[in-house]
C-alpha cells in the first residue's frame, strides 16, 4: 500500500509565493509522508480492488460549515467518503453540493469573502490544519470542473504537463507521466499524432478527458468532479462515466451531479443534500430504491427539485 | 371593434400611431448615422489636411538631417528634424519602459491579489490620474525634477510615463478581467502557487490584450506636448543627442516652435512634422487593433 503524500511537506515547500524556488526543486519528491500511513486507519479494501489497484485514502468531513460572506451555505456537514469508491452528491440547485467538494480541496476559500469551518481529514490528516500547505492539499486532491477548461495558450501535451512543469518538475519523467495520463483517460489513440496541437482544438468531450488527464498527471489520490458531464453530449458523457469506473481502482472519487441516472450508473454510494445539509447517505441502489427519508424519496422520484 | 376596423389585413393591420413611431424610429436612426459619419469625417479631414500640407516638405533630407539655422537665413530651419525623431523615440521608449511594466503590475495586483474594495479604489485613482490635465503633470515634474536642476530627457520621460501609466493600467485591467475565472481555478486546483498561475496561465492568455493596451498608451504619449514643454523643450544644441541627461529635442515641441515661426518655410516643416507624428500614431493604432483581434480570438475559446 502506498502512503498518502504529506500535506504538510516541511522545508522543501515552505517558500513564500514570491519565491521562485519551485523552478529549481528536485524533479521528484519523496512520496513518503512523515508520520502517518493510511494502513493505520484505512477501512477494509473494497471488493473491486484487484490487480494493479492502489489504495487511496478515505475522506472524513466533520461539522463542515461554509460561508459566502454572511450567508451560511453549509450548516454542519458530516460525511464519510469511503476509499476507492465513487461517491455521488445529488440535490436541488443551491443545496451546497459544489460547495462541499470545493471545501475538500480548499478551493472554496478562493472566492472573495468565502470561508469554511470544521474538519476534513484524509486518513486522519486534517486538510484545514494550519500547518498544511494548501498547494500540497490540491496536489493530493485533484479537481475536474463543470466546463472543460484546458489552458488556451497551451498544446495538448503542455496542458497535461502543466501541473508537473509549473511546479518545477523537469526531465523525461514529465513526458512519461503525460503519456501515461493520456492513456489512462483513453485519449492517447486520439491525440498521439498531434500532441503539439492546441488543447482547445479538441471536442468538448475530449477536452474534458484532457482536463481529467491534467488532473491525474500530478498523481493525486482523491479526485473531485463538479458536474463533469453537464456541458457534454450523451456519448461523451458515457465515455467519462466509463472512465470514472476505471479510475475507481486508483482514486477516491467524489462526483457532483444534477443527473440522477448518472449517479445511479457511476456511484457506489450517493449523498442527498438539501439546503446545505445532508439528508441521506446510502449505498446508491438503496438510496434510489429504498430511500429512508421522505424528502429523498420525493426528490429521486422527481416530485420536486 | 372588428366592425370599427374593417382593414382587409385584420389582425395584421398596423396598430394606431404606428406611423408616428416609424417616423421617430427613422429620425433616431438618421441622427445616429450622421454622428458616426461626422466622427469618421473629422478623422479623415485631419489626416487628409495634414497630409496635403505636410507631404510637400517631406523628404529624405527632412527625415535624416538635423536642423540647420544661421543668421543668414534669419533662423529659418533649412535642415530636417532627425534630432527630434530620435529624441521622441528615446523619450517614448524610456517613458514606456517605466509605465508599461508598472501599469501591467498594477493591473495584476488589482485583478489577482487586491480585495474588491482596494481594487475599486485603485481603479478610481487611475481614472483620476488619467483625467489630470497633462500640463499639470508637466508642471508637477518641472517643480520636482527641473527646478534647481535643469531640463532633461529623464524629466520628460517621467512626465510622459505619468500620463501613460493609467492608460496602460486601466486597459490591462479590462483585459485581465476577461480571462475566465475557470482558468485560475484550474491552475490553483493543480496545486500551483498563485503567482505561478498568473505568470504561466493568466498572462499568456491575456498577452494580446496587454500588448494592445501598451501600444495605445505609446500612441497616446507620442503626441503629448504639454508635459514636455516644461521638461524637455530648451535644447542646448540642435545636434543629435541620445543622452537623456540633457533636454532632448522631440517632435511635438519642435512642431510647436516651428509653427510659431514667422517663416512660411518653417510652417511647411511644422506640417511635415505633424505628418510624421500622425503617421506614427496611425501605424501604432493599426498594430494595436491587430493584437486586439488576435487576443479576442484567444479569449473567446
Briefly say what this structure is.
By secondary structure, chain A is an alpha/beta fold. Chain A has 10 helices and 10 strands. Chain B has 11 helices and no strands.
What does this structure look like?
The complex is a heterodimer of chains A (305) and B (301). Helix content of chain A is 30%, strand content 21%. In chain A, the strands form two sheets. A six-stranded mixed β-sheet of chain A has the order 6-7-8-3-9-10, with helices on both faces. Chain A has a four-stranded antiparallel β-sheet with strand order 2-1-4-5, covered by helices on one side. The N and C termini of chain A lie far apart (42 Å). About 12% of the residues of chain A have low confidence. Helix content of chain B is 72%, strand content 0%. Chain B contains eleven helices and no strands. In chain B, helix 4 packs across helix 6 and helix 6 packs across helix 8. Chain B starts with 17 loop residues before the first helix and ends with a helix. Chains A and B meet through helix 2 and helix 6 of A and helix 7 and helix 8 of B.
Amino acid at each position: 500500500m502506498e502512503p498518502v503524500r504529506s500535506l504538510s511537506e516541511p522545508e522543501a515547500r515552505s517558500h513564500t509565493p514570491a519565491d521562485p524556488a519551485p523552478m529549481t526543486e528536485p524533479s521528484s519528491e519523496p512520496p513518503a509522508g512523515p508520520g502517518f500511513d493510511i494502513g493505520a486507519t484505512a477501512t477494509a479494501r473494497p471488493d473491486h480492488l484487484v490487480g494493479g489497484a492502489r489504495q487511496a485514502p478515505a475522506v472524513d468531513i466533520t461539522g463542515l460549515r461554509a460561508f459566502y460572506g454572511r450567508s451560511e451555505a453549509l450548516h454542519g456537514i458530516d460525511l464519510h467518503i469511503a476509499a476507492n469508491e465513487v461517491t455521488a452528491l445529488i440535490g436541488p440547485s443551491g443545496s451546497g453540493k459544489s460547495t462541499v467538494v470545493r471545501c475538500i480541496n480548499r478551493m472554496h476559500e478562493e472566492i472573495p469573502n468565502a470561508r469554511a469551518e470544521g474538519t476534513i481529514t484524509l486518513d486522519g490528516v486534517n486538510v484545514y490544519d494550519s500547518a498544511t500547505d494548501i498547494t500540497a492539499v490540491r496536489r493530493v486532491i485533484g479537481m475536474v470542473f463543470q466546463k472543460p477548461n484546458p489552458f488556451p495558450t497551451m498544446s495538448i501535451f503542455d496542458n497535461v504537463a502543466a501541473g508537473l512543469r509549473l511546479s518545477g518538475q523537469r526531465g523525461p519523467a514529465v513526458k512519461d507521466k503525460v503519456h501515461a495520463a493520456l492513456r489512462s483517460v483513453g485519449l492517447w489513440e486520439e491525440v498521439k499524432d498531434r500532441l503539439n496541437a492546441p488543447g482547445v482544438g479538441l471536442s468538448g468531450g475530449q477536452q474534458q478527458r484532457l482536463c481529467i488527464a491534467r488532473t491525474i498527471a500530478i498523481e493525486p489520490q482523491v479526485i473531485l468532479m463538479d458536474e463533469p458531464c453537464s456541458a457534454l453530449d450523451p456519448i461523451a458523457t458515457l465515455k467519462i462515466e466509463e472512465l470514472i469506473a476505471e479510475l475507481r481502482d486508483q482514486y477516491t472519487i467524489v462526483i457532483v451531479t444534477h443527473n440522477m441516472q448518472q449517479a445511479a450508473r457511476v456511484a457506489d454510494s450517493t449523498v442527498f443534500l438539501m439546503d446545505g445539509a445532508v439528508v441521506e447517505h446510502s449505498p446508491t441502489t438503496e438510496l434510489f430504491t429504498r430511500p429512508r427519508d421522505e424528502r429523498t424519496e420525493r426528490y429521486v422520484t422527481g416530485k420536486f427539485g | 371593434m372588428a366592425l370599427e376596423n374593417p382593414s382587409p389585413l385584420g389582425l395584421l393591420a398596423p396598430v394606431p400611431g404606428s406611423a408616428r413611431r416609424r417616423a421617430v424610429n427613422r429620425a433616431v436612426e438618421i441622427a445616429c448615422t450622421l454622428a458616426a459619419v461626422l466622427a469618421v469625417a473629422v478623422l479623415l479631414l485631419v489626416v487628409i489636411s495634414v497630409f496635403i500640407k505636410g507631404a510637400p516638405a517631406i523628404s529624405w533630407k527632412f527625415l535624416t538631417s538635423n536642423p540647420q539655422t544661421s543668421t543668414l537665413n534669419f533662423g529659418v530651419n533649412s535642415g530636417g528634424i532627425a534630432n527630434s525623431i530620435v529624441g521622441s523615440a528615446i523619450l517614448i521608449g524610456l517613458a514606456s519602459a517605466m509605465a508599461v511594466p508598472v501599469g501591467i503590475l498594477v493591473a495584476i495586483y488589482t485583478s489577482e491579489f487586491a480585495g474588491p474594495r482596494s481594487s475599486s479604489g485603485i481603479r478610481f485613482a487611475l481614472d483620476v490620474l488619467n483625467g489630470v490635465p497633462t500640463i499639470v503633470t508637466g508642471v508637477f515634474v518641472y517643480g520636482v525634477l527641473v527646478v534647481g536642476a535643469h531640463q532633461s530627457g529623464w524629466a520628460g520621460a517621467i512626465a510622459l510615463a505619468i500620463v501613460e501609466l493609467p492608460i496602460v493600467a486601466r486597459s490591462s485591467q479590462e483585459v485581465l478581467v476577461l480571462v475566465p475565472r475557470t482558468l485560475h481555478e484550474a491552475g490553483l486546483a493543480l496545486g500551483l502557487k498563485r503567482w505561478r498561475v498568473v505568470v504561466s496561465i493568466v498572462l499568456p492568455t491575456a498577452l494580446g490584450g496587454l500588448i494592445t493596451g501598451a501600444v495605445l498608451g505609446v500612441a497616446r504619449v507620442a503626441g503629448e506636448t504639454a508635459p514636455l514643454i516644461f521638461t524637455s523643450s530648451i535644447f542646448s544644441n540642435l545636434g543629435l543627442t541620445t543622452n537623456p541627461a540633457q533636454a532632448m529635442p522631440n517632435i511635438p515641441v519642435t512642431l510647436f516652435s516651428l509653427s510659431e515661426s514667422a517663416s512660411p518655410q518653417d510652417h511647411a516643416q511644422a506640417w511635415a512634422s505633424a505628418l510624421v507624428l500622425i503617421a506614427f500614431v496611425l501605424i501604432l493604432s493599426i498594430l494595436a487593433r491587430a493584437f486586439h483581434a488576435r487576443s479576442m480570438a484567444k479569449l473567446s475559446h
